[in-house]
Amino acid sequence: MVVVALLAFAAPAGADESSAFFSVSAGASPVGVEYFDAGAPVIPGEIVYGSIAVTRAALDSVGNSSGFAAGPYFGDNVPALMGAVNALGPQGAILPQYPFMVQSQYPGTKDQKQDEGPRKLVATSSENESTGDAHVGLARGNPGVLSVSSTSKVKQDPATGALLATADGLVQGFSVGPTLTIGQLVSHAEMSGRPGEKPTKKTTLSIGPITVMGQLVGLTEKGLVPVPGTPKATDVNGLTKQLSAAGITLGLLPGEETDTGIDSAAVVVGIAQKGPGGITRVRIILGRVRARVES
């Protein structure tokens, strides 16, 4: 009888929506890289994941509000492993903290930032909003990229209960030598709603211009296609074969949607090269951003 009375007191009939559960999150990793090495000395076929610029933001109804930004970032295992090694040190920390990330939390550390040359990282949090923002420029090499920007935001309006999660990615000047170039790629994912209501979803992906062997082309789920500006004599199928001969694949990854989340579409670039230990493969995912609203 006591338990029943307490439950009735804790959740009275007609409780307002402000007491309802919700969880909102957003994440953006506009350039994600998976590296597969068949000749890895530790674990054969070992896969390493990294990102040039990654952001996250999260907010829920039990008082958690956090922002995160990093670049470059090699997955959550690296900072966790460094922290575990430091915990084992008999005289304190052995390794420095992972240097290329900032985190915010409310209550607690409401903001952190780094601004060093071409790398700018910002994370901010308040009771009803959190943001992660990262910009990294001049990632030289082959493949290379001119700049990457990543932004994740979550927000709750305490007056109306409205929830919003947005994620944005911008990739400029991606190239694999002279073989493949993508001038710009812009992606967006957004979810909004109120606790107890079905959220609305929106996602976009804009790509262009793309050149293969110096020829202007477009990209669909079916592969390369001609676009306005492509010379009439261009053999699109031949360009696909030339990419394959160079160890490069190019495809469009469709977006994904569930009742509580949405992921944007993305461009996938595969690169295969022969190394001393066998074939090494790099899978680069361009433009993937996501938003989540659960209530």
What attributes characterize this protein structure?
single chain; 295 residues; mainly beta; ten-stranded antiparallel β-sheet; 20 strands; globular; disordered N terminus
Order of helices and strands: HEEEEHEEEEEEEEEEEHEEEEE
Question: How many discrete structural domains?
Answer: 1
Question: The biggest beta sheet, please?
Answer: 10 strands, antiparallel
Distance between the termini: 30 Å
**In terms of structural class, how would the helical and strand content be classed?**
mainly beta
Strand content: over 45%
What integer is the average pLDDT? Answer: 85
The rounded Rg comes to: 23 Å
Oligomer: single chain
C-alpha geometry: globular
Helix content bin = 10-25%
Unreliable parts: 1-18, 85-89
Please tally the β strands and state the result.
Answer: 20
Helix run count:
3
How would you sum up this structure in a few lines?
The protein is mainly beta and 295 residues long.
Describe this structure as you would to a colleague.
By secondary structure, the chain is mainly β. It has one domain (19-294). It contains three helices and 20 strands. It has helices at 2-10, 77-88, 236-245, and strands at 23-37, 46-51, 54-60, 65-70, 101-106, 111-116, 119-126, 129-139, 145-156, 163-176, 180-193, 200-207, 210-212, 215-220, 223-225, 248-253, 256-257, 261-263, 266-275, 278-294. Strands 1, 2, 3, 4, 5, 16, 17, 18, 19 and 20 form a ten-stranded antiparallel sheet that branches. Strand 10 and strand 11 form a beta hairpin. Mean pLDDT is 85; it is low at 1-18 and 85-89.
